[in-house]
Structures are given as structure tokens and as C-alpha cells.
Amino acid sequence: MKKEEILKKLRDTDDYISGQALCEYYGVSRTAVWKAINQLKKDGYVIEAQTNKGYRLVESDTSVIFSKTAIESYMDTKQMGRTIVFQKETGSTNLDAKAIAENGGKSGTLVVADMQTAGRGRRGHGWVAPAGKNIYMTLMLRPDCMPNKASALTLVMAIAVYEAVCELIPKENCGIKWPNDVVVNNKKICGILTEMSAEPECIHYVVTGAGINVNQTAFPEEIKDTATSLYMESGKESDRAKLAARVMHFFEQNYALFERSWDLEHLCDKYNSMLINMDRQVRVLDPKGAYDGIARGINEKGELLVERSDNGETVNVYAGEVSVRGVYGYAT
């Protein structure tokens, strides 16, 4: 008897559900149900029990609980996130996922932490990671494609996070700043970092990590103008466990489209509809010399097509080489 199964059943039931009904539904003994209920109570769930009525979950007290059981109770995927490694505190979920991969871990394993002490952003930048507020998670995959295709997974994860966030924030306020920053009201709410172990002709594994600002209420002075959280934009706390599961839900759907051609051919239109830079002026910070242009969306490789303002030439911009900024601020 898995306690996440009992939790899901309690959550899906509006009123009390009898212990006998739970026994019959799962084909287990009353003792097994009783033990699962007590384990959930120890985890912090408030469950009312009444004679001749059964059990009832007090939903209002559950949104702050962030645990393996909580995430599993929301998970509806077939592969992605079906194996979860959860830690209250870790250095980096990407590093943890790499270690799991090196030890033969299963593709689709999800590493989640309540707090990171050595989180990394793009180009080695640090990532602010307080406890009890945000989501730090990394998905480990073993895609059957050439190594040069793997970087597109960063954009697949960005789409998944965007779609999950849009269940909590009005869609018109959300977007993706190419290539992998999910933004709300032009401020960053999520960063994504993809790393790989490979040989010239094959991939050993890929880890794609996402840090999502969920219930954080303030940011350091140096990033407060460019970063935000779901709480700061909606005015209410979000259930981190549910959000993590919803990201996996959407990732699995989009990964299936990625697998068809091992590129973004079947996801370009979707991504471009989310792209906050689409048909807007951007500044390309190329080491060879910065230039301005109009972003025209991505191609199947995930490269940003920029129509240069100086000569009208369309340039394929690769994320690993340059940065793109909005002319009038961080995103626009």
C-alpha cells in the first residue's frame, strides 16, 4: 500500500471516504490503510477521521507540503518522473542526477530538492535557492539521438514549464525569452540548465534542470528588477508538488513530439507562439560584435532567427555562443 495512492484518493474525494471503501478499492487490509493514513499525518497532512464516515483530507493545509509523496500523488505520466529522488537540501540537483545516471539510473528519473546550496545558472552563474519556497528539479534522460540534438531539450523543458505556469497565471502575462527563460510580466520566473555526457556518436545521458520561483516573496537587490515569482505575480501561494507534477505532464507530451524527429520540427510553431521576443527588436551580444535585429522565431535546431537591422540578412543565432537581450529591458 503506497501512501501516495491513498493521498490521491482522499484528494479526489469531496467528502469522507470509508476505510472499507479504501480497502476494497486497493485490495488491502484495514491495517494497511490505517498505517498509510498515519504516515500521511506524520508528513503533515491533516486528515479527519469520523466513526461511520471514514476519512477526509483537509485540503487547505496541504499546499505547503513539498515531498516525494506529495509529488507522486499528483503525477499522471507514464515515464517522466515516475521515479523520484527527493531531498530536503542538496548542492545541485543536476549533479545529483548525473550521479544517478552514472550508476545506471532509469531514464525519466526526476531529482527534486526543497533547497539548493550550489545551484548553477547559464554560464556558471549562481542561482538564488532559499528553502521552502521554490522548485529545484532535474530530469535525467537517455535519448536515442546524436549528441548535437540534445541542446534542444532545454527548449522542450521551457515549453513544459510555460504550459504548467499558464495554469496558474493568465497566459497573456507569460512567455519564453529565448532560449530557456520562462518569464511572467517580463520578469524571469524560471531558468533551465541542460548538461550532457556523450561520445561523438552517442549520448550516455542528458540532465535538464529547472529552477522555478514559486512562493518566494523578495529577491536580492541585484536581480529584483529582472526576477519574480508566482506568488509575487498572483498574490497567493502555489502548491509546489502539483506544479512539479504538471511540468512533468507537459514535458512528457512535448518530448513525444521531440522524439519523432529528434529536433524541434513538431514544436517550432508552439514555441514561437510562446516566444516573448517574436517579431520584436533584440540586441544580439555576439563576441564578434553586437548587433540589433528583429527576432523571427526559432528553427528546428532551436536557433533564433534574427533579421539584422543593418543589412537585412537573417542570421541563425546559437544559444551556446551569444546572448540575446530585449532592446528596452531584460526581455523586451
Structural account:
The relative contact order is 0.11. The protein has 9 helices and 14 strands. The chain is 29% helix and 24% strand. A 7-stranded mixed sheet has the order 3-4-5-9-8-7-6, with helices on both faces. A 5-stranded antiparallel sheet has the order 13-12-11-10-14. Strands 1-2 form a two-stranded antiparallel sheet. Strand 3, helix 5 and strand 4 (110-113) form a beta-alpha-beta unit. It is α+β, with helices and mostly antiparallel strands and 332 residues long.
The first-to-last residue Cα distance is 51 Å
Number of helices: 9
What is the H/E string?
Answer: HHHEEHEHEEHEEEEHHHEEEEE
Mean pLDDT: 91
Shape, principal axes of CA atoms: elongated
Quantity of strands, as a count: 14
Radius of gyration equals 22 Å
Percent of residues in helices comes to: 25-40%
**In order across it, which strands form the biggest sheet?**
3-4-5-9-8-7-6
Strand content: 15-25%
Largest sheet: 7 strands, mixed
Which residue ranges are poorly predicted, with pLDDT under 50 across at least 5 consecutive positions? none
Structural class: alpha+beta
Brief summary of the model shown:
With 332 residues, the chain is an alpha+beta fold. 29% of the residues lie in helices and 24% in strands.
